[in-house]
Amino acid sequence: LGVPPLPxxxxxxxxxxGWLHSVARSHVEVALKHPARLIxxxxxxxxxDVIAQAHEKGMLVAALAGKAEHALSHVERGVDxxxxxxYEAGGHxxxxxxxxxxxxxVDAVGDRVPVLAAGGIGSGRQIAAALALGASGxxxxxxxxxxxxxxxxxxxxxxxxxxxxxxxSDTVRSRIYTGKPARLLKNRWTESWSExxxxxxxxxxxxxxxxxxxxQRLMRAGDPSVVPMPVGQIVGRMNEVRxxxxxxxxxxAEFDEALSRLDRAR
Amino acid sequence: LGVPPLPxxxxxxxxxxGWLHSVARSHVEVALKHPARLIxxxxxxxxxDVIAQAHEKGMLVAALAGKAEHALSHVERGVDxxxxxxYEAGGHxxxxxxxxxxxxxVDAVGDRVPVLAAGGIGSGRQIAAALALGASGxxxxxxxxxxxxxxxxxxxxxxxxxxxxxxxSDTVRSRIYTGKPARLLKNRWTESWSExxxxxxxxxxxxxxxxxxxxQRLMRAGDPSVVPMPVGQIVGRMNEVRxxxxxxxxxxAEFDEALSRLDRAR
Lengths: 266, 266
Known about the structure:
Two copies of one chain form a homodimer. By secondary structure, the first copy, chain A, is α/β, with parallel strands linked by helices. Chain A has helices at 21-32, 48-56, 68-76, 98-109, 124-132, 156-165, 188-192, 206-220, 244-265; strands at 38-41, 60-65, 81-85, 91-92, 115-118, 137-139, 171-174, 182-185. Chain A folds into two domains: 21-141 and 244-265, Alpha-Beta Barrel (TIM Barrel), CATH 3.20.20; 149-237, no CATH class. In chain A, the strands form two sheets. In chain A, strands 1-2-3-5-6 form a five-stranded parallel β-sheet. A three-stranded antiparallel β-sheet of chain A has the order 4-8-7, with no helix packed on it. In chain A, α3 (68-76) runs parallel beside α4. The A-B interface holds A 67, 86-88, 95-101, 103-104, 119-121, 123, 125-126, 128-134, 168-169, 232-234, 236-237, 256, 258-259, 261-263, 265-266 and B 67, 86-88, 95-101, 103-104, 119-121, 123, 125-126, 128-134, 168-169, 232-234, 236-237, 256, 258-259, 261-263, 265-266.
């Protein structure tokens, strides 16, 4: 892929992410020392003692769910908010798309906790659609990656360029990032794992440890065609860098427009 | 899979479907002799002469699109209605889920032709969501498979039983049905194509010719765990056989409820 090696003074293990129990625990401990209002867990239900500690400090606990049975399990364990995350979402995600998943999860747990819709949401029309499906609100991730406030340091320009150029067809759901299926920008790096003779990804947490150094090299290469970057299918509509305030104003205006249009459909 | 052979008097070639140009042409010729109001094309744009003949007879022509560029191509060729069909749909379908695809196609061609949303729609909430996304209406397929009026003859009971029992996780998008990706019920038949040593599917139209006899055997076996059946992720909500009139009444009532709920969100 033509990606240069790391400088000799790069710390060993730099770039290994938190998909290890020990690392996740240390993140939670830091979070619990801050006056956060919400802790959200992306993979599985948070451990019972974490939920208890968060509640003691007056924090709410959210958890992502890709199936109704996951949502039921979250609520039984004391989670306060369920995020129904569809196939089109970025990062770790399941097989069921938002149009089908959101009503299923609302019907499973919506009488007990608020359900937020995630996956494919980047405009007020999509917020209106999520609420029509029964969600109490939405959870947006990818859309913030192309806001002015999003700071990635010196690596920013190649990542943002890749995001701005990508269409909704330029993502792939793959196990190469962590060992579990996650949606990523599709590019020369992800495609190289589909070539004849490419190895199968290792199970979590080994895969991220395997590719941690490669990720660092790919990020530093300054080449938009190789960045290892989780993002949802909504990336096709992320076509300019805008301040968060502008994005929020658009979301509200588009939501109002969508509701007015629906009124006329009656 | 324990599936019995066909009776000796089965006509050769029975079960080969229309994914051959010659077969599709003969279907169109029959359709054009009837007083139909609409011809819909699922794979690609209809040929120019078919569009012209349909228009001469006062028929409208619809075409399915899984990407905005397909929709643009359809409209340039004279298609009257575009069906934006998301990943969650049954049968041949693309990678982009409805939540992302519908607004993209509405923005690409919605000022020139009506756009209908397809994929994941089986309730009035989902119709409201589709309209919130900008669609002029919806196109439902799977939901009709479990209506009283749907008649498959003697093979019906095992197919309907399989549909009623399936959850939204029990489908798979695979090339084994025709050679192009199509969403099917996931069962012992589809899983056998993922086993070690299983062959790769052939390209269209060869794959359907290859499996035509197997499809006949699987359908006649009377075993719900092997039926080769295209269906969307909405199959998880198809849990009883109902008359079409009841389904329509529910769709209208749920649509009204969803709009009333959205009104209160303002």
